[in-house]
Amino acid sequence: MNVGVLADSLKSIFRKKARSVLTMLGVAIGVFSVVIISSIGDVGKDVINQELNSIGIDGVMIGVDSSKTSKTIGEEQLQLVQKNPVVKQSMPLMMKYSTVSAHGNSDQCVVFGVDKTVESMVSLDLLHGRMLNQADINGQETNCIVDESYAKNMYGRSNIVGKEISIQLNGVEQDFTVVGVVASGGNMLQGMMGEYIPCFLYAPITTIQKGYNAKGYDQIMIKLVDDSNDITQLQTELEQQLGEGNVSVQNLVQQKDKLNGILNTVTGVLALIGGISLLVSGISIMTVMMTSVQERKKEIGIKKAIGASKGRILCEFLSESFFICLFGSIIGIVIGTACVIAGCRLFGFSFFWNWKLLFTCLGFSCGIGMLFGVYPARRAADLNPVEALRSE
């Protein structure tokens, strides 16, 4: 295919500007819809992952099904977990729903009993003060870390290090000193459901155990050497100590992967529905090109009479279909991407270029144009030059 063929194709497109623009617009709308739907899915997936990461959703949680046994996880199970080769790091955990009070105001909270490894096990961003240390754990100190949202709600500022708050443990009010403030996890959830989501507090696990007269732990949180590691053997070993079927394992990494898989499926189905409009555009291109063949019969006859081959005529009409789809796709991609960027800036979401999506839309659209342009191009190439010259 030479430059002359491409030039003739472009001239034919701009000869009928209104018709060409409307055809391109049909392609642009199809590409626009696919770009918008797929980009919303990508941005939504990114937002959800960030949200889950911000509230520490990571690793594997091992607990005991309290409906099946009265046994609890203890030091023996913790040591068994720590010795397992697939476990990178572990932390015993107590989790209690309670009430926290300050200035005479009470609020619902989730109290996490943790040890000094909490900083590396849970995604916590320290804003003020310090994290819990081994001295807090050993001494069963009544020190705690609060999240930023609670500090601002109670005191109107984020730095409340040194303030005293009262936490109810097993029905008994106990005074705690705030030694650190961390960024609130789940900012989007806090914004939408702040009145219903309790604040998060972190205290020494030994202090929580003492407050609830507990010797064991509620759960063990572990991080694996590799997220793909199988922990079936570890679960079996724990069930040998706690009873078969009594151990519950929640792989939070796999849960996130499943959620991403669902989002990908939903986005793919919606994008496919949007892609149907590209097929409709392909039919429109075929109709327009068939009309063009009828209108240009005499022109085709002249070209053939002066030596134009079937191949040249075929390539010229195929090129027209290709350029219509190419220009339409570029318009759809530019407008769709601009809308996504504007939306991300408006709502404060992070935008990233999905080049695979853009090139896929471009390639698929141009492929549709070539596919639906074959029949009209063949009709044009097969025209008899004598009959074509006789046409009015």
Low-confidence stretches: 186-196
**SSE ordering:** HHEHEEHEHEHEEHEHEHEHHHHH
Strand order of the largest sheet: 2-3-8-5-7-6
The oligomeric state of the chains shown is: single chain
Computed structural class: alpha+beta
Fraction of residues in β-strands: 15-25%
The overall average pLDDT, rounded, is 82
The backbone outline, from C-alpha atoms, is elongated
What radius of gyration results from the CA coordinates? 33 Å
Number of domains: 2
- List the total number of helices: 14
Please provide a written account of the structure.
With 392 residues, the chain is an alpha+beta fold. It has 2 domains: 3-52 and 258-390, no CATH class; 72-242, no CATH class. It contains 14 helices and 10 strands. The protein has helices at residues 3-15, 17-54, 75-83, 118-121, 134-138, 148-155, 187-193, 205-211, 232-242, 252-295, 297-305, 310-347, 355-381, 385-390, and strands spanning 60-64, 87-102, 105-114, 126-129, 143-147, 164-169, 172-182, 199-204, 219-224, 247-251. Strands 2-3-8-5-7-6 form a 6-stranded mixed β-barrel. A hairpin with a 2-residue loop joins strand 2 and strand 3 (105-114). Helix 2 (17-54) crosses helix 12 (310-347) and helix 12 (310-347) runs antiparallel to helix 13 (355-381). It is elongated and about 105 Å long. The two termini are 29 Å apart. Residues 186-196 have low confidence and may be disordered.
Q: Which SSEs are present, and which pair or pack?
A:
Elements: H1 3-15, H2 17-54, E1 60-64, H3 75-83, E2 87-102, E3 105-114, H4 118-121, E4 126-129, H5 134-138, E5 143-147, H6 148-155, E6 164-169, E7 172-182, H7 187-193, E8 199-204, H8 205-211, E9 219-224, H9 232-242, E10 247-251, H10 252-295, H11 297-305, H12 310-347, H13 355-381, H14 385-390
Parallel strand pairs: 3-8, 5-7
Antiparallel strand pairs: 1-9, 1-10, 2-3, 2-6, 2-9, 4-7, 5-8, 6-7
Helix pairs in contact: 1-12, 2-10, 2-12, 2-13, 10-13, 12-13
